[in-house]
Each structure stands twice: as structure tokens, then as C-alpha cells.
Amino acid sequence: xxxxxxxxxxxTWRSRTHFLPLLVRILHKSRxxxxxxxxxxxxxxxxxxxxxxDGSGMMSMVLWNSLCPEWxxxxxxxxxxxxxKYAIKTSYPFKTHPTPGDSQMxxxxxxxxxxxxxxxxxxITIIPEEMxxxxxxxxxxxxxxxxxxxxxxxxxxxxxxxxxxxxxxxxVERARKRxxxxxxxxxxxxxxxxxxxxxxFILELFATSQPDVFERIHPMTYLVCTQMRVxxxxxxxSSRTVYLTTSxxxxxxxxxxxxxxxxxxxxxxKSFVQWMKSQSEAxxxxxxxxxxxxxxxxxxxxxxxx
Length: 306
Hints:
The protein is mainly beta. It has two domains: 6-136, CATH 2.40.50.140; 148-297, CATH 2.40.50.140. The protein has helices at residues 6-12, 67-71, 148-151, 211-214, 267-277, 281-286; strands at 22-29, 33-34, 46-54, 57-64, 80-84, 87-90, 107-115, 123-127, 159-169, 173-176, 184-193, 201-206, 222-234, 240-253, 289-290. Strands 1, 2, 3, 4, 5, 6, 7 and 8 form an eight-stranded mixed beta sheet that branches. A five-stranded mixed barrel has the order 9-11-12-14-13. A hairpin with a 2-residue loop joins β3 (46-54) and β4 (57-64). The longest helix has 11 residues, at 267-277. The relative contact order is 0.13.
């Protein structure tokens, strides 16, 4: 019955010792981060960021340590949470920020909600969607879906969401996180078409915290990628190459994972599904490719230019 909203919390947090419960919806979710080091003895050195919102605006929330394996997979984009006995910290300045689908959404950036297993032990309750009431005033999850025909005109680093039919998926490759580092990023290339252009989306998909989805991307699946970034590459002969890459907050979904996701209500997603109903699956299967080495962006044609 007694709640506080994020806007009021930001204004009054310094003068409070006890914080009233929060009722919020998750709008964005980061990949799970492991920050363990050999010299530090910690049981569960994990961390994950979420962007949560109520009627007053949006704020970051951090899930710490042993709460991550317990809660991370249950906390999906669109999930409504009741939070009690949480902590407040000033915001970490070097964190990445997703671009909200609603450009009018106010962002509270000075503080973040911290969920810990102790000091204090946070109480987390997931409210089932059928019990969420309109009078709570929680914002809906909004997206920035683009079509392939719109992609070439978008600026470098533009944030967007895409849906398409997979026609090619490459093998999993590795790239060093830093020079001489023993840590690697895993990624794979994929092509997806949406019927609005002769060209496919070229997607650089880094492994997110969804290994079950990442490993099962295959031709003829409906692929949704959220919070992607546009990469514009100028080649030596002044031609442009454009592709999309994942960000820290990207989520990937394939056939079998779409049910109940908030993006199923989006107009461009519905339009793509209608287009697919008019297509011959057999025709598309003939053009699909899987595996192999995919050199992209294209290398120069001679070693001296390279």
C-alpha cells in the first residue's frame, strides 16, 4: 500500500534511512558480468545491470553476486518487480546506457538501486503480468525496430532493433578482449532478410548471457535482436559497408523463444510475420548457408594495402 516512485526517491534519498518499496518494470537487461580475480576469494563474483522504470522515469538497478544465479534468468525485459530492503548507491560513471524505446522517458542518472544478499538482504517479488493493474501507471516496453530498407540511411552507432529470417549463420569465432589477454569474446556472423530490400541485415552477434539461444541460431529461424548498434565502414574505394553489432544490453530471440515477449505487439514485427506468411519456405531454404569462414568487413585485395 505504501510505495515510493523513482523520481521521489532520487530527490529524497539522502535524507532517508529507510526506503519504501518500489514497483517497477524492467525495460532493459545487460549481459551477466563476471568480475572474479584469482587473488580475491569471492564465492559468486557476478553482476548484472537492469534499467527499471515506473510512471516517473527510468533508473539503473544492479543485481549482485549470489543473487545473479538465483534471479537473473527470471528477470526478463517486461517483468514487473516489487522491491523492498534495497540499497541506494551513487551511479557508476563508466556504465553503458541503453537507448530507451520511448524518447520522452526521463532518466534518473545520479543514483542506482543495489540489490544484495545482505546489508540489507533485498526482498524481490515478481508480479505475474496478469496481475499488473493499469492504475499502477507502469510504462510499456517500447522498441525501435527498423527495416532493411531503412538501414543504409541511419548514422553510425544508431541504436535499433531488428527482426528477420536467418539465411546464413557462420561458425563461432573468437576475438581477444585486449591485446595479450587470455580472455576472448565469442561471436558469429549471421544474415537475415525481412522482405523490404534485396540486401540482408549483416549481424555481428556476440555471445550474450543466452547461450541456449546463441548456439541454436540456424537458417530459417525468425531472429529478433534488440539494442543493436549500426556500424558504418568506409572502404578504400569510398564504398560504404553497413552492418549491425550487439551492445551490452542486446537480447537475442529465435523461433521457440518469441512467445510472451513484449515485441510481439510491435507493428513492424507484425508486418514481418505477415510477409513471411506470403513466402515459399522451399524457395528460401535453397538459398540458405551455414558454417564456414566469413571474412567481414572485406579485406583489401593485396597484402600491401592491408
